[in-house]
Design a protein that fits this description.
Layout lengths: L2 E3 L2 E3 L6 E3 L3 E3 L4 E4 L4 E4 L4 E4 L2 E5 L6 E5 L11 E4 L5 E3 L5 E4 L1 E3 L1 E4 L3 E6 L4 E3 L2 E3 L3 E6 L4
């Protein structure tokens, strides 16, 4: 799969999802990924979020983003890119309020597991391993 995602849900019953080209979640759209889903990325592909990514697994059923290579290694795929319109809203107590959320996820074999540009982001109970870089946060300051 590749291309632009309109509001959609990826279910565990259709897992694994194989990403063969870059994926964009447009502004105003939401990609929901259910617990237990595995998303496998071909070489040099990424998931860019300009809308919302809601990937909330459970302690017994993680969501996994990983390489689709036969012998996975660091930097096999580019990672998940969260743009300024794809971030999270956090309340005054630092709790998730709305927008993108990753909870109980595993991100493996990426160049940058998460690249967060000019936004806040909610990540909890998750594992980023065997990546070239786990998280890169970039901000445009004028």
């Amino acid at each position: 799969m590749s291309g632009t995602i309109n509001t959609s849900t990826w279910s565990a019953s259709n897992s694994p999802y194989i990403v063969t080209g870059n994926i964009l979640v447009n502004s105003g759209e939401t990609l929901t990924i259910e617990p237990g889903v595995t998303v496998q990325f071909d070489s040099d592909t990424y998931l860019k979020v300009e809308g919302a990514l809601y990937a909330v697994g459970t302690s017994s059923s993680y969501i996994t983003f990983q390489s689709n290579a036969a012998s996975p290694d660091k930097s096999d795929w580019k990672g998940i890119r969260i743009r300024s319109t794809g971030g999270s809203t956090i309340d005054g107590s630092q709790n998730y309020s709305s927008g993108s959320q990753l909870k109980y996820v595993k991100i493996k074999h990426a160049d940058r597991g998460l690249y967060i540009h000019d936004t806040g982001f909610h990540l909890s109970y998750s594992e980023l391993s065997t990546n070239n870089m786990a998280i890169e946060i970039d901000s445009s300051i004028c």
